[in-house]
Amino acid sequence: KREGRDRFVAFSQEMDAALRARHLIEEELAATLARGGRDLVLHYQPQVSGRDGEICGVEALLRWRHPRLGFLLPGAFIGLAEDTRLVAKLDEWVLRHACRQARKWPELTVAVNISPCSFERHGLAGRLLRIMREERVNPNQIEIEITESVLLKEGKSAAEELLHLRSQGVRVALDDFGTGYSSLNRLRMLKVDKVKIDRSFVQPIGETADSTAIVDAIVELGHALGLLVTAEGVETERQREYLRFIGCDEIQGFLFSGPVPPEAISEMLIEERQRGAA
Ligand code: C2E
Ligand code: MG
Ligand code: MG
Ligand code: MG
């Protein structure tokens, strides 16, 4: 019995420690945001044309240079920011900084991820459009990436926010497509411009007939609805070949490039221009 109790004490001490660590990270995130996001950085991943491999856009992906914990990927802190409602502030920070970068890349579409939680506070579209205006970026250079859960959670009001954004030229992409519930119906209700096929379907292309069939079907459905289709997580030449063959519009993945600092994108654009001129 005593041993069981010791174990319980050890267990709850561990829980305490984990909770304290979580609280600390929350506080640190709030603090870095309050200081203008000093330790936050955006990396950008190219999205290239399926046809000729030209860069058509980039996706902004958030990183945190944490003073104690090192370079953190979103998986380590976005969930936490969602639980504490810090995420709306975080998404606005990302949009503002992505806009500043977008001004330097007039030929590219810049995509930012917007958490479903950001839709919970009323007036999201107005807030985002105001940031674009303040940063002097044309809304038609900006794309927002949302997931299907947005409609699940917020229903009609989310649909209205999206309509408002689209009426001003902002493009809307449905991220991680195929992993949520009743995707097909939602695709009809959500007015979007683009679907991004989740990488769990892209990675097994050519290995399992099932996932290849799903990718085929998504591209066909997307095109039938007049949408652009992007494939995420493209890592091999074979995947790229197949996606090109079925007419997938854009691809994104380590095969072309992972997320990189903005200077690296600028260099890619210069190289591309030189190749074009040669
Ligand atoms: P996502 O929007 O689906 O972004 C794509 C993720 O896949 C990125 O991970 C990217 O680094 C990774 N990836 C890209 N190409 C490949 C590939 O070929 N193979 C593999 N295995 N992975 C690839 P990351 O940067 O860790 O971001 C994870 C998620 O965090 C994102 O998924 C997005 O949902 C979220 N996130 C990132 N930045 C933000 C942000 O600013 N705001 C919000 N709310 N969420 C963000
Ligand atoms: Mg995304
Ligand atoms: Mg995705
Ligand atoms: Mg994702």
From TrEMBL:
Coiled coil: none annotated. Residues 22-273 form the EAL domain. This is Diguanylate cyclase (GGDEF)-like protein. It comes from Rhodopseudomonas julia.
